[in-house]
Amino acid sequence: MIAIDQASKWAVRHEAHSLPLHLVGRLSIELFQNRGISFSQFADDGAVVRVVVAAVVAVVAATLVLVPRRYSWAVALILAGSASNLIDRLRFGYAIDFVSAWGWPTFNVADVAIVAGAAALALLVITAE
User: Fold this and answer.
1) 97: annotated active-site residue
2) What's the structural domain count of the chain?
């Protein structure tokens, strides 16, 4: 997941001169530098954001080691997405977002992995016997 996310961001950065690219309806590809966290909150707190994101990645990594095997793939998705966005923040000072869809804040593949992993984890917990 990290490789897929980083490759997609590389492609978008290297095609930035051709953006925005309107796909269909209100779905487009456009380069956005997210200096904050979700929905660009705390955008003026760069160093603090990097430390908090690094701490979250460490906690999720520890959780991956401790959770029952049933939950590990969902936690791994959350970890991969979080780690990939941390890589951006350490390299560039911001996360690279590029998918603009129907009035939602711009997001990336790592964000999709985080949300999918969290939703899957919630479903797994709810349906646990």
Assistant:
1) yes
2) 1
